[in-house]
Amino acid sequence: MRFFLAPKKSLGQNFLIDQNIINKIVNVKKIKKNSTIVEIGPGYGSLTKKILGLNPKKLILIEKDKKLSIFLKKQFAHLKNIKVINQDILNEINYNNVDNNIIVFGNLPYNISTKVLTSLILIKKWPPWYESLIFMFQKEVADRIIAKHNTKQFGRLSVISNWRLDVTKHFEISKNCFSPSPKVNSTLLSFKPKSNIYKIKNPENLEIVTRILFSNRRKMINKNFKKLFKNSYSVAEELDLDLKKRPGELASEIFYKIAVKYEQLTE
Ligand code: SAM
What we know:
The longest helix is centred in the last third of the chain and has 15 residues, at 252-266. Strand 2 (36-40), helix 2 (46-52) and strand 3 form a beta-alpha-beta unit. It is built from ten helices and nine strands. 35% of the residues are buried. Helix 4 crosses helix 6. 34% of the residues lie in helices and 19% in strands. It folds into two domains: 9-193, Vaccinia Virus protein VP39 (Rossmann fold, 3-Layer(aba) Sandwich), CATH 3.40.50.150; 203-266, Orthogonal Bundle (Helicase, Ruva Protein, domain 3). It is α/β, with parallel strands linked by helices and 267 residues long. The radius of gyration is 20 Å and the shape is elongated. The structure holds S-adenosylmethionine. S-adenosylmethionine is lined by residues 11-16, 40-43, 46-47, 62-65, 68, 88-90, 107, 109, 112. S-adenosylmethionine binds at residues 11-16, 40-43, 46-47, 62-65, 68, 88-90, 107, 109, 112.
């Protein structure tokens, strides 16, 4: 494929050129005919064309690059079920009157991939408007998302992602499958909203708890725990929490319990 615009680094424009990989991505999950599908950052539409093969009822493309969105509008002008929105995905987009059970695809721009994911997790209404997310990340970011405690990669992103989403790793993608080729390889992950989750009323509280407890990865959590709770020892006892542990040694569930407690005591 020939690209007619200089790729913009600032928009993470590394376009997929390997047709086998594109086929693998759209077939990673069984997607019902007549689904509504959203694609984040469609670029020149290489993934989009394959998504159309899934016979969606509606396909919504959200592309920040104005010139690319004009290109896409022209390219798909003959298809009534495609809507191109020239917008930043990080801005508020109202999907409410679109549909339920939306599938979201995205070969996400590297520089905003974690922001996009966390914004889709930390929304007020749960279960959310989407049924599944099929996203490509820089390999190192994917490793952080799926990490378990007691590993180097485990951190805030792992805790926050696993709170509300079941995450599946599918396969890795070589940097050679893109043009221009990025410096690192990628990984395809998919996410499904959990129905049974720890009830944290305001997701911001999980953000606060993880930010404070992970602010010093190498140190025991006792000092940071005091920043969260005045009566830190009695809360720790109640939660059966050993304050001598380092944040990376605590399983995700413990962070959720701490966030629930924090919420109760700060209400
Ligand atoms: N899906 C295409 C592919 O696989 O070839 C392009 C993927 S490229 C990694 C990321 C795309 O996201 C680019 O088209 C870029 O212009 C677009 N993009 C970057 N930042 C964006 C944002 N904040 N909102 C929406 N689209 C964005």
